[in-house]
UniProtKB/TrEMBL annotation:
Upper classification of the organism: Eukaryota, Viridiplantae, Streptophyta, Embryophyta, Tracheophyta
Organism name: Gossypium aridum (American cotton)
Keyword Nucleotide-binding attached: no
CC annotations in GO: nucleotide-excision repair factor 1 complex
Name recorded for this polypeptide: DNA repair endonuclease UVH1
Gene Ontology biological-process annotations: double-strand break repair via homologous recombination; nucleotide-excision repair involved in interstrand cross-link repair; resolution of meiotic recombination intermediates
Amino acid sequence: MVLKFHEQIVSNLLEDTNGGLVVLSSGLSLPKLLSSFISFHSRSSGSLLLLHPPQLSSSLKSLLLSLSPDLPLSEITADLPSSNRLSLYSSNRILILSPRILIVDLLTQKAQTSLISGIVFLNAHSLSESSTESFIVRIIKTFNKNASVYAFSDKPHSMVSGFAKTERTMKSLFIRKLHLWPRFQVNVSEELERNPPEVVDIRVPMSKCMLGIQKAIVEVMDACLKEMRKTNKVDVEDLTVENGLFKSFDEIVRRQLDPIWHTLGKKTKQLVSDLKTLRKLLDYLVRY
């Protein structure tokens, strides 16, 4: 069963032949969206390349086939002979492969850019202007301007880390349209409200030793934050111990400091590093 907001996302993507970048809230079933999207691939237009991140290299094909058994999927691995690769690139199928394999095949002309109808990235949040994926897109777009480029991410917080992260990612992938799908979007919220999850809250109290360690770490964090406030380089309203307990705190600080990072002194940079370490220690305290 295809979700309504998945249908809307696919419809929006197919409207623009140039492609697009889709940023979803986490937990909105990116694999299902991907299987729905690639099922619309027309074999008459050429091969569709699906570049997988390293952590999904072994499970992506089986996952997609379990969702859509009729997909014309093939996988290109490093063990596949070059003659077989040539035939697969010209087969007009959906090909799953790693960026490393594709860049080698493009440079050695085993993969003809004229036979590629589009390329799909699943890890848009980890791409940059200097990444292999960006180089691949530049090569394909140079020789085949009609090739579509689609990028997906279900880690929105990573898309705003650094200076103009999303804009730079879109520019490096030659993408013009950005599609944002947060949980409060009408179609998404209606779908989620149909089957609300049953939440069971289980709390385990900390021991006396854990409380002592937590108090000591918080005191050190407070001292570091006071030193940070003296630099006048960051918004002091965000520099609180309460905010320092959350993972997003590192991104808040780096986002403010990235444009002026090269002008900061050694002491300020060390404070940023120390705060990150202290926050990790607090996380490890209750996790392990």
